[in-house]
Amino acid sequence: MKRILFSMFIILAFSIVRGQTQDKGNNSKIKTTGFKVEGMTCRGCVAHVESSPDKVDGITEKQVSLKEGKAEIKYDPAKTDEQEIEAALKSTGYKISRIENKPNNK
Ligand SMILES: [Cu+2]
């Protein structure tokens, strides 16, 4: 039993290290975009909005806030763009509007 746990731990540690190395290669290109999301009322809505960009290739991170009515999406501009992400979010039926990038938001 101990041996199984130990080998599982090794596999897990290995995949974490691999994930980190892969991230480093892409980080410089990753862009962030923000959207205002109106009409979300519960965690189910959040989950719905959050899962909608899954069909878009190149999304690296998604954060949807119910309290703020916002969605923040990180993406690889080589694979997708804001229009595509916006369209995916809009497919949920909630009112989506793009938040213009502030000058200090790099
Ligand atoms: Cu809901």
Strand proportion, as a percent range, falls in: 15-25%
Distance between the termini: 49 Å
The helix-and-strand class reads alpha+beta
Mean pLDDT reading: 85
Question: What topology, given as strand order, has the largest sheet?
Answer: 2-3-1-4
**Bound compounds:** copper (II) ion
Could you list the spans in which at least 5 consecutive residues all have pLDDT below 50? none
Keywords:
binds copper (II) ion, alpha+beta, single chain, 106 residues, Alpha-Beta Plaits, 3 helices, 25% strand
Describe this structure in words.
With 106 residues, this protein is of the alpha+beta class. The chain has a domain at 29-99: Alpha-Beta Plaits. Helices cover 41% and strands 25% of the residues. It is built from 3 helices and 4 strands; from the N terminus they run H-E-H-E-E-H-E. It has a 4-stranded antiparallel sheet, with helices on one face. Strand 2 and strand 3 form a beta hairpin. Copper (II) ion is lined by residues 41-42, 44-45.
Provide a concise account of the structure shown.
The protein is built from three helices and four strands. With 106 residues, it is an alpha+beta fold.
SSE topology sketch:
Layout lengths: L1 H25 L4 E8 L4 H9 L7 E7 L4 E6 L6 H9 L4 E5 L7
Antiparallel strand pairs: 1-3, 1-4, 2-3
This protein binds copper (II) ion.
